[in-house]
């Protein structure tokens, strides 16, 4: 029987079953839970006898959309298009999800859609205040990176506008901007991009803390996995690594 034909009680029973499957890390469970909560939310909005479950169902639906969208953008499962679709779906239920805007901004920036990236990053302070779910808040490092993304997105937009202006053959008395005046702008873009790249991961040991790029992180894992026990935090899960064995 399809989810559409199931009653609210049947969907609630299936929810319990899928949650148990998720604890066992069965493939596809996250996607199934999202589909279930979507149907459950639609049915509860039309049934006053179950409206007391509306808020918790909405929260569960948003939570799984954000978690699944985040997982789809990780190095373990790169699917940027599906990640964007899933995160945007979460925002249809609640606009005030700072972590969803942050990751959508990152994905837009990655494909050079700088205006879209700017829109997602610009209002993060307000979304951070309006969001009632602690899990969806940004940490201080992410908020700092958001400001760098705002600066770089704006600089790229300015760069494109200047290039477009130079291409237009229009008779004007406006003095064009000299190329040497633009060089600090290009330099700022490159510096900010290097800063974001070099601070992608945080490594904490018993004696020190440092930031590094993804490539540096992968090299560090390869060099250290046989000597040390490594606790690795990704968007999807926490892994314990030692001697090329992994426990999740």
Shape, per Cα inertia axes: globular
How many strands, what sense, and barrel or not for the largest sheet?
Answer: 3 strands, antiparallel
Query: What fraction strand?
Result: 5-15%
- The pLDDT mean sits at 79
In DSSP terms (H or I, runs of 4 or more residues), the helix count works out at 10
**SSE sequence, one letter per element:** HHHHHHHHHEEHEEE
Kindly state the number of beta strands: 5
Ends distance: 33 Å
- Structural class of the helix and strand makeup? mainly alpha
- Radius of gyration, whole Å: 23 Å
Low-confidence stretches: none
Strand ordering within the main sheet? 3-4-5
Helix content: 55-70%
């Amino acid at each position: 029987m399809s989810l559409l034909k199931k009653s609210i009680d049947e969907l609630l029973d299936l929810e319990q079953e899928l949650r148990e499957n998720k604890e066992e890390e069965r493939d596809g469970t996250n996607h199934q839970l999202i589909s279930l909560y979507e149907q459950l939310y639609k049915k509860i909005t039309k049934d006053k006898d179950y409206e007391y479950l509306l808020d918790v169902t909405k929260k569960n639906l948003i939570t799984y959309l954000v978690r699944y969208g985040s997982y789809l953008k990780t190095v373990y499962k790169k699917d940027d298009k599906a990640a964007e679709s899933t995160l945007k779906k979460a925002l249809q239920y609640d606009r005030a999800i700072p972590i969803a805007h942050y990751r959508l901004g990152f994905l837009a920036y990655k494909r050079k859609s700088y205006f879209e990236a700017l829109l997602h990053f610009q209002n993060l302070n307000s979304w951070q205040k309006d969001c009632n779910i602690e899990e969806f808040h940004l940490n201080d490092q992410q908020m700092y990176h958001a400001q760098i993304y705002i600066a770089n997105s704006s600089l790229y937009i300015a760069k494109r506008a200047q290039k477009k202006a130079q291409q237009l053959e229009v008779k004007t008395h406006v003095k064009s901007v000299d190329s040497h005046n633009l060089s600090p702008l290009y330099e700022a873009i490159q510096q900010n991009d290097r800063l974001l790249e070099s601070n992608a991961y945080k490594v904490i040991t018993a004696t020190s803390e440092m930031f590094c790029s993804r490539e540096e992180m992968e090299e560090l894992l390869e060099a250290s996995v046989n000597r040390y026990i490594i606790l690795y935090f990704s968007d999807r899960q926490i892994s314990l690594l030692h001697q090329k064995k992994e426990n999740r």
